[in-house]
Design a protein that fits this description.
Number of strands: 3
Number of domains: 1
Radius of gyration: 14 Å
Distance between the termini: 21 Å
Strand order of the largest sheet: 1-2-3
Order of helices and strands: HEEEH
Helix content: 25-40%
Largest sheet: 3 strands, antiparallel
């Protein structure tokens, strides 16, 4: 299904080093769509958040301030 999903706009952006399994996917035309197979919360704490969490908070704040489109563009 990977080729079909890529044709529809999904990006397979991260793969495991050992067996090249998909670990992260993104939807570039969406204000913030990132999915991960791994667990970023295991490498995060309140003082030093994982980059995925930090980026999500920054995107949410930007959207709230009007810096990002509220609707998905296609």
């Amino acid at each position: 299904y990977q080729k079909i999903l890529e044709t529809a706009g999904l990006t397979f952006s991260g793969f495991s080093a050992e067996n090249h399994l998909v670990e992260t996917i993104e939807l570039p035309n969406h204000p913030f769509f990132i999915a991960s197979q791994f667990h970023p919360e295991f490498n995060s704490n309140p003082r030093d958040g994982h980059p995925l969490f930090t980026a999500f908070i920054q995107a949410a704040l930007a959207q709230r301030a009007g810096g990002l489109d509220a609707e998905v563009t296609q």
